[in-house]
């Protein structure tokens, strides 16, 4: 789980049945493969997140297909309907096969 | 179930036209511009490398399968697609993308009945500096 | 309260100083407003633009008025104090007649008089920003001198733009530890999570009326000024977020009135009023327009109060059932010759100046003709700055930014060090020299032109065109983006797209786009001070280096007619 990844659920307090906002950021350079390294003059090979999966408990609630033109340190935000107390897990995969996971608990009050 | 929605075979970015990129997503259908798709992006980008894009679809979550973001004049105009389920409550997606120059950004909503609706917004990428 | 003890000059010009202030009060609410003071604590001369060209569809509209077109639009008579304050026409003659403009101590007198008349609980004082930057004392104290003055004037709420060029840490320090006013902004958020940096709005009870005031900082701060000052913050117009706060104030906070205190620019705010519902009044700033009458867009009243501390805007309101029943507005000219300075603020200003007095008052040359700043393409003081830089760096082309702040020096007047800072006092003053191809140069000029002449106000950044020395060109304002400039000549020869040119520039991001930056880069004010000392008699040409193809005059009326 090498990379730093962050998840924020807004608002901080919510109850069963609420729709909350899930904001996520993963620290990743998102190299497009189109840019030259300023020092070496060589093309920096493509290296980018291309797939994101979001699990709420066991359920796959959202997934994303991602291209290299998404900004460095990708930010994704979406809604979630709170209908259970369960972990929310986001999995980021990149084109080199690297996988990062982050879990937050969804605890309605 | 969601996996089967993926239209993308994880190839590296490829140079192609906006029309070709759009066709791949809509499988040849023509998206209709709709007031239902609310696309929020800056008129002038503060930084072409980080352009915030926010999309809301004014419809029930059951009716919206996915939201696709495209940037008309990028090397590869397709940027990102989010596949939604009823567990998302309301159709909403926000991200940040790179824009190579001034161009239109498109948000294309893929509806459950197989149709596509969309909104576009011109975003200016400038060196700026008059104060 | 008497403003002045029978000033002889006032009588000479048959101006009753009380007339400056004469105002029929209305209702229980007085909203005072200033914008774009640019740190001018002392009175100055400030000449309004002699050219104000815009896209043809905007010509003759408030925000794009100057000179005769302005006088006709607002019914200003020639040879009057208003003509002197609001236009460039006969400026040196009228300056001799009416004297300097603005000054914090003179404004304080007017403010105190209004408060005495109305009662403090009925008066709210708002500042649309560009207040902390523009003079030497502001620069030397990193904005603190101006904050002290704002506190003395009794500013209640403010927003910002050039304030941010002191860097975000300094802004937060001044806001948290020194500024008595509330600093508000609904459009500044942390880049990572989009959380707001400042309170988006404040609620004030004025004369029994509950007023919600939302702040808009200059939306294009990170583009118009170097990004590093606001690293990690994001701006933008944010109309959707603004609508959310308007609704929140009306529906949840149950305010009587919703006000937007803005640094968007007059033109952009007119566009914004069409996009957002439920704003009663916009107090605008940034584009420096003196507008003696409010304008109305849908149900929103919009006012803007000029620049350089020349005016105090006063808006009186009678509010009933959350509606403005009656109003009265006046843009009060701070004509310092006809107003007795407030002793307290006068002392504060002189204390602020004391440590720098000797340096700033040094006479370094004499203006052989009017040195001014405002014009769409060219100005005599900018020409002097460009010449100074060329003498220093020997560049083929010199760029000076089209800022709308600065100063004016009358023909025959001594030029002081203070004057030079009034034109150049910024926190990133270095002059960079670099190489750039003709092709890229044209691209950049077209880009700047599109920011100035776009017909959609949302795409205007509110500056004048960059000033160039060594380059002449023709421009068709109405042409599409990227195709406005023609017949570009560099030192008499056609621009060669393939050739590399040596360019010097300051005050922008331009050098980042060039190559081979020379290692030496000195501050522009030092270069200009030395140049004026060397040449003494300063007499720049008055002819512009730019020919406008689709307008025959600098201040066209509606329809492009001169
Ligand atoms: Mn200003
Ligand atoms: Mn400004």
UniProtKB/TrEMBL annotation, chain A:
InterPro entries to which the protein is assigned, alphabetical: Ig-like_fold (IPR013783), Ig_E-set (IPR014756), SoxZ (IPR030995), SoxZ_dom (IPR014880)
Transmembrane segments: none
Domain Sulphur oxidation protein SoxZ: from-to ranges: 11-104
Signal peptide, first to last residue: none
One Pfam family linked to the record: SoxZ
Name used for this protein in its record: Sulphur oxidation protein SoxZ
